Predict the structure.
Amino acid sequence: MDQISESKIIGVATRRVDGPLKVSGAAMYASDHHFPGLLYAWPVCATIAKGSIANLDSAQAEKMTGVVAVYHRANIGKLYRVPPAAGMSLILDEKRPPFEDDEIRYYGQYVAVVVANTVEQARAAAESVKVTYNRDKPDANSKLLGSPLTTDKPEEKSKRGDTATALKSAKVKVDEVYTTPVETHNPIELHASVAVYDGQKFTLYETSQAVVNHRDVLAQMLGVPPEQVQVITRFLGSGFGGKLWPWPQSALAAACARNLNRPVKLVVSRQMMFQNVGHRPAIEQRIQLAAEPDGKLTAVQQDYVNHTSMLDDYDEGCGEITPFIYSTQNLLVTGGLARRNVGNPTAMRGPGAVPGLFALESAMDELAVSLKMDPVQFRLKNEPEMDESLNIPFSSRHMKECLTVGAEKFGWSNRTPQIGSMKKDGVTLGWGVAACSWLAARSETQASVELRQDGSARVACGTQDIGGGTYTVLAQIVSHETGIPVSKIDVVLGDSALPSGPISGGSWVTASVTPAVLEAAQKASQALLLVAVKSDGSSFKGKKPEDLELADGMVRQKGQAQGAVPMAEVLQIAKVNSVSGQGKSEGTLEDSKPKYSFHSYGAQFVEIGWQPEIARLRINRVVTVIDAGRIMNPRPARNQIEGAVVMGIGMALFEETMYDSRSGAPINNNLADYVMAVNADTPQIEVTFLDYPDYNLNALGVRGVGEIGLAGVAAAITSAVYHATGIRVRDLPVRIEDLLPMPKVNIA
Amino acid sequence: MAIDEHENEPKTSLGRLTRRSFLSHVGAATAATAIAPLASSSASAEAAPTEAASTKIPGTVPITLRVNGQSHAVQVDPRATLLDTLRETLHLTGTKKGCDHGQCGACTVHVNERRINSCLALAVMQQNAEITTIEGIGGPENLHPMQDAFVEHDGFQCGYCTSGQIMSAVAMVKEPWGKTDADVREAMSGNICRCGAYPNIVAAVQAVRRMS
Ligand code: FES
Ligand code: FES
């Protein structure tokens, strides 16, 4: 593959091009859209988690002031099921269209929707719809290993060697169970759908991380051709995976708009965010590790079970990283799904890898303790030469350097291994470390670039900017290729009518758009050179286009600054408004015989402070070293890693969605009781990028940084907690009562 | 249903599309102060008195609100929060809803120069108040120093909590807090940023505090 190493703009800290819109409230998010005649929809949510609707009485609601319609199973109209997903199209988690039958399978399931003139009227009427239920006892049990599974036995995910024998004969072993609770994505932007129907075409303003897939899914559900659906997400108040695939409110808003022939806005409440739009499932993992006394790993086994909903199969894939992160001859990963009365789980930032690495890296720390080995040295010792699960080379792996550079920056050599042995200002310190990894990939992408007579350029791609800086990245790539400054490049994205772009997931947007946008910009440049040699009055007339180039926004003889003519002038002389080029890049995801193992790597070092006398646990500082290829725009990249570390602190110490075992309701369904890290929880975070370009992935050598920063953080924190307190917390989140010597009281 | 055709036409730039779609939604009179295009500076800061969306809807009552120095005679549902009134009636959508329960800070505005959660205030009770929203602080073409600092220090990712962060920050700078980063972290902890841009938010606020 081509290698582009020199650039004036790639890798240079660049102010976000969409920044001024975001800081002034001018950026338009889905629920900001307004149309004449707009109506408001408010769903009615089931108040049981299992059973069926006995009776739904909407008479009173219908009579209330401002109410336009109450829809339920009998009158919502056609909503179809979607055929099975094909590649990156037709993906959705909750496959049953809303109101399809009268059965209730999770708490909060939509059973009706009210449409009214104001949001207050819609909500009041929704609360007045009388629903009676035949109630069954729900199962929201978080005990998972050993539960009945959706398959006869756990599925084998990865296997090599003979793990059972190696474990049996092992000299040093760890065999523990780790649990992670339900986590709710909780982007600050509520999921929202504003649906506009003109009698034929649907224009849907959605909170979507994947506008093209969203269009395809909604077209199927509504029973219209995809050309009659346009999905728009100009700005997204982030998603963390929760907005990857459509949720039922989108179909409801569209159906209401269709039925009433008026625009309809449906904004999901924060309470519904805990019920109706996915979550990271509850997971139990048993990890067995074996090593020689010198620290060489001999066997790794991971058995996980995650919960899923009653109708759909969501596999967290906790063995994402396990098969290739360390060298071991014997390895087995198995996984299973257990049905519960919960809404469907979905991918949350770093799906599989994040909970998987919490368990694996915790066990690695436990094994290092048993071996009396330094945990950094223990990991370095088990560094693989190649991807042992696929028997292919790593494209670009610098895990060892992540660990050594991190140890250096953190001051790891000053660590004393004895529990509670490190003190500062009367506070007990704990130091912990974990390694991390996340996949790198390209997804099929199309893009177009236009060069215009006014000296500006336009780049269009049907992808999204969910906060990672994609608007700016697209501008940077075009600027790199054409020399046009970023300030003169219009970026258009977030619209399914644009050339089909990647989903904002898997941390692969930047890697995916790079080749397509480069190609589109090159083709637009060639079209410009053709104009230059063919137009009357052009100083390049009659020259060969291959002898010319577009550099610094000027057309010139290759390598000669003299005689260069600005792009705008070339087009003006030719009386041409614009030239354009299309680009396309292939995905790596569909590659069944990959040549390289593509991943990003990192190391997380954490210091905690523990004050048992006031039961205070604080994260003091975090040092993170990331090997994620070349970094396109260091400013937002560092921001994303820091933000992921903050989320990791929440995962380790605060976040857990709790279900009432009697009703099946998520009981801490608000932002006061579901605790997320706030500004005051934020420690000093030092982020280092190793910045090794991965040219096997694309010409710029860029990968992506959306998810890797979260992986490993929780394990580094619990290892630090162990170092300070001697207490190994294997069930997240760490609770203060886990750390205090209190007798356990069982309240039956 | 008259939908502006531009809404369906992805041909314009980031900035221009935002402005055009906004104009098409609320009429030019109120739009000028709120949103200017990325690449043009012609938008006037003058806004005429507005009757935005004052069409009579059954069950609503007439009130007058002073927002960003301007009086608005509007019809609102008596149960409407200030937040929903700003967003749904006045179409000042820069103020965001994250929880509707006073738990996230996304809806922070100034009422008589103090920061409040607009989701916890009823619109009908704010008739004598001076309300300031993010649109009243500065537009994309004439950023307030705090807004500029947020761009410079990358104090956001998705941008959804950002209006609230900035409104909080502008008020916080005038409140009696200590000088340290820890003070800023404490003072800004009513504004959740799920993207976790906290280090950069602190950097932006401190940069502005050092300037003044
Ligand atoms: S929306 Fe008002 S505090 Fe969250
Ligand atoms: S920038 Fe996304 S929530 Fe703060």
